[in-house]
Design brief:
This protein is 29% helix and 36% strand. The model has no long low-confidence stretch (mean pLDDT 94). The chain has four helices and seven strands; from the N terminus they run E-H-H-E-E-E-H-E-H-E-E.
Amino acid sequence: MTAILIREANAEDAATLAVLHGASFQPAWDEASMAGLLGKNATAALATQDGKAVGFALSRIAVDEAELISIAVSPMARNQGLGRALLSALCAHLKECGVHTLFLEVASDNAAAVHLYESFGFSRLGLRKKYYANGADALTYSLTLG
């Protein structure tokens, strides 16, 4: 198995991000949605292995704050620390861009994601009742980047 490489995604990666998102979330964002996000103060870290995309972390920047919009990891690459590596790479890039605080919301029933964010150092801010279309609550978090 070869090493995983993480690089900044660009507009040409929109279709790839959409496929990865679709393997992790329903409803999934399509290529046009991803292209639109990438064109609006967004930045994404894209992980590849053997030339194949295996995950991404996407955020949107507003002055000195950012929102983590999504992290998706291919089912075949899960439970190997890739989500943490993507989050770490994204945070480093955001810090270089002058971002001081990263915010996110996550479904309260997504135990793996909640564990990742809490173990990474995110602080829980609150709860948004029935935030998602399926009726799930959202937990909100923040992380100070420095």
